[in-house]
Amino acid sequence: MNRVLAPIYPEVGAGGFTKFDGTVEFYARINALLEPGMEVVDLGAGRGCQFEDEVRYRRDLITIQGKVEKVIGLDVDPAVMKNQHVDERLTYDGGKMPLADGSADLIFCDWVLEHIENPGVFSSEIGRVLKSGGWFCARTPAKHSLIATASRVVPNRQHSSTLEKIQDGSRKAEDVFPAFYRLNTIGAVRAHFPAKKWENYSYTYSSEPSYHFGKTYVARLIAAVQYLKSPFGGESLLVFVRKL
Prior knowledge:
transferase, SAM-dependent_MTases_sf, alpha/beta, S-adenosylmethionine-dependent methyltransferase activity, Class I SAM-dependent methyltransferase, Rossmann fold
């Protein structure tokens, strides 16, 4: 990553991340919400592939285990049972979560909302499981981002091979799932987490390009397009809603 982005973002030499790093942006805000006694749910935890990050600072940010009382890893994929970065591992069918009403202080999911087929059921379950005052936090591609637009053009069955090419081999097939983009706009978040029940602090954000075929000139081009698109919203949707 540094090899491709360093000519565009020289600051990567000081710590390994750019000033636009989306992982730093998302997890720094999650860390600001954490309290030692919390029970936290990592929804869509998977096998823990995010911890393969070569940058120590980002790994420290995404590590929630040890900062709170308990971290539960929940996923439809049984690979979650291999995740060593959570205290408890659970699978479910994508419908009702195997968690008690009002049991969680914070639920977060990273690159998951784009895979939600039924956002009504999903948001209802989030509301059921969270305590009053609890937070739901998510990072997902915005519906009209470059990657989401391209994803809707490429059939789901080809996503794995396509992502492997444009992310320069950094994305494994086992970490690619069908995408629907039904909960990927500020409007959709407001509709499924209405103001009478939720405080909404969501926003969009554009990080440095991660889909660049391993070519600096492609990253420069994508960064320029993102800049021109920025008045109409960022490439990622960062969801922060608090249950009343």
